[in-house]
Design goal:
This protein is an alpha/beta fold. The protein folds into 2 domains: about 120 residues, ATPase, nucleotide binding domain (Nucleotidyltransferase, domain 5, 2-Layer Sandwich); about 90 residues, Nucleotidyltransferase, domain 5, CATH 3.30.420. Helix content is about 30%, strand content about 30%. It is built from 6 helices and 10 strands, in the order βββαβαβαβββαβαβα. The longest helix is centred in the middle third of the chain and has 18 residues. It starts with a strand and ends in a 29-residue tail after the last helix.
């Protein structure tokens, strides 16, 4: 059985799967409470599925981009559990999880995450000749810079700020297919499916060196300058 953990943003999720097939799944609004809510919700979903920790033989964690604190909590929890149970761990891009539900369309898929300060975190994925591909790596940009790069019909998904949705629709017209409302909710079940494809092939991450994908430093940092 696999455990998938996603604490990338204020929407958190966990899923239990068996060879990639979902057994149980939980999504909730965590806000800034990932530290206090993750373990109790894991125990709850295990109880509902009539399973326990020793049944887990692989862990999949969303590695970002996302909030600094949320990613730190999820990654630390996943690493600690993998070490304690002596089981493999894989990290999966949060933006890839956002894009995964639309893989069968064969259209380019651009997941968008609000990065604050008028910026967004984006990537580009597409199924080509039956193979799931990352066309553009995760990076920070702006809507203004992104729009000229879109030259064909593209699916935009994720939690896109309303003002950015308007910009995409006004500038790209029919080339912008935007997923909104409940259909755009990121689910840990898709994280489990993506992670299982790596677990079954033995493509594990090295737990001590696996790090969150922050893309940039947290907003609050400690200056290294020493004042005299």
């Amino acid at each position: 059985m696999e455990l998938a953990i996603d604490t990338s943003t204020d929407t958190a999720g966990i899923a239990l799967s068996s060879q990639g097939k979902i057994i149980a799944e939980l999504t909730w609004h965590a806000g800034q409470n990932h530290t206090t809510e993750l373990a109790p919700n894991l125990l709850c979903i295990l109880e509902q599925a009539r399973l326990n920790l020793k049944d887990i033989n692989g862990i999949i964690v969303a590695k970002g981009p996302g909030s600094f604190n949320g990613l730190r909590v999820g990654m630390s929890f996943a690493k600690g559990l993998a070490l304690a149970l002596d089981i493999p761990l894989v990290g999966v891009s949060t933006l890839e999880v956002e894009a995964s539900p639309y893989a069968a369309t064969t259209l380019p898929i651009c997941p968008i995450q609000n990065a604050g300060r008028g910026e967004i975190a984006v990537a580009l994925f597409q199924t080509k000749r039956g193979k799931w591909c990352r066309l553009v790596e995760e990076h920070i940009t702006t809507v203004e810079a992104l729009i000229p790069e879109i030259n064909r019909r593209t699916i935009f998904c994720g939690r896109i700020p309303p003002e950015m949705v308007l910009q995409l629709r006004e500038r790209l017209k029919r080339k912008a297919l935007i997923v909104e409302s409940a259909a755009g909710l990121r689910r840990a079940g898709y994280l489990a499916e993506l992670g299982w494809s790596r677990l079954k092939s033995g493509d594990f991450d090295h737990s001590p060196t696996l790090e969150p994908l922050y893309l940039r430093r947290p907003a609050i940092t400690i200056s290294h300058k020493v004042k005299h």
